[in-house]
Design goal:
Number of strands: 0
Largest sheet: none
Distance between the termini: 56 Å
Order of helices and strands: HHHHHHH
Structural class: mainly alpha
Radius of gyration: 24 Å
Number of helices: 7
Length: about 230
C-alpha cells in the first residue's frame, strides 16, 4: 500500500505543486519579456531588433526556468527520498521507539498520552512509513516534489506569458510600441494574478495588486536603462 491514502475531497493544497510553477513561469515570462522589449524599444532600436531580442528572451528564459525548476525540485525530491529511506531503516531497526516518537508528536498536538499511544499504534499498523512521513517529516501526497512536472510547467507557462508582449510587438507600430507593450503586460499580469488567486483560493485583489506593481516597476526600470544608454540592451 502507498504511504499516502486516497481521499475523496479535493483541497486547494493539492494544487500547490503545479500551481506554484505555473504562476511563477507565466508571470516571469510576461514580466521579463515585456521588460526586455520595453528596454530595447526605449533605446530606439528598430522593430526587427526588438522582436529578435524578445524571441531570444523567450527561448532563453523558458530553458532557464525549466532547468532551474528541475534542479531545485530534484534537490527537494532527493532530500525527501533520503529522509524516507532513513525512516524506513529506523522503523525496521526499532519499531517500538518509532511508535513512542509518533505518540509524542500527537501529545504535543493535544492528545493525552494513552490516546496518543493508541493512535500511533493503529496508524503504524496500517501504514507505518506513511504515518511518519506525514506527521514526523511533513511529507504528503500533495506537497511531495515532482521535478519533471515542475520543469515542464515552468517552461510552458513562461513561453505562454512571453508570447503576449511578442504578439504586441508584431501588431503595433514602433511609435506606440512601448506604451502598447506596457499596457498589455499589465493587463496580462492582472489576469494572471486573478487566475492564480482564484485557483489557489486566495484574495484576488491583493494578488492582482502585487503582480501589477512589481511588473510595472520592472518595466519602468528597464525603460529607464534603455533611455539612459540609448543602445540595445
Amino acid at each position: 500500500m502507498s504511504r499516502f491514502s486516497a481521499h475523496s475531497e479535493t483541497h486547494m493544497v493539492a494544487r500547490i505543486g503545479w500551481l506554484r510553477a505555473a504562476v511563477l513561469g507565466a508571470n516571469d515570462g510576461l514580466v521579463s519579456t515585456a521588460s526586455l522589449i520595453v528596454g530595447v524599444a526605449a533605446a530606439s532600436s528598430g522593430k526587427t531588433g526588438i522582436l529578435v531580442a524578445g524571441v531570444a528572451g523567450l527561448v532563453a528564459g523558458a530553458m532557464s526556468m525549466a532547468a532551474g525548476e528541475y534542479v531545485s525540485v530534484s534537490s527537494q525530491s532527493d532530500t525527501e527520498k533520503a529522509d524516507l529511506a532513513r525512516e524506513t531503516a529506523e522503523l525496521a531497526a526499532d519499531p517500538a521507539a518509532e511508535a513512542r516518537e509518533l505518540a509524542e508528536i500527537y501529545v504535543t498536538r493535544g492528545l493525552d498520552a494513552a490516546l496518543a499511544a493508541d493512535v500511533a499504534a493503529q496508524l503504524m499498523a496500517h501504514d507505518a512509513l506513511g504515518a511518519h512521513a506525514r506527521d514526523e517529516l511533513g511529507i504528503s501526497e500533495h506537497t511531495t516534489a515532482r521535478p519533471i512536472q515542475a520543469a515542464l510547467t515552468s517552461a510552458l507557462t513562461f513561453s505562454a506569458g512571453a508570447s503576449l508582449p511578442l504578439l504586441v510587438v508584431v501588431i503595433s507600430p514602433v511609435v506606440n510600441l512601448v506604451p502598447a507593450v506596457a499596457f498589455a503586460a499589465l493587463i496580462g499580469l492582472g489576469a494572471l494574478g486573478a487566475l492564480g488567486a482564484k485557483t489557489g483560493g486566495a484574495a484576488i485583489g491583493r494578488a492582482v495588486a502585487r503582480v501589477v506593481f512589481w511588473g510595472a516597476l520592472a518595466m519602468a526600470v528597464t525603460a529607464g536603462i534603455g533611455h539612459l544608454f540609448g543602445a540595445v540592451v
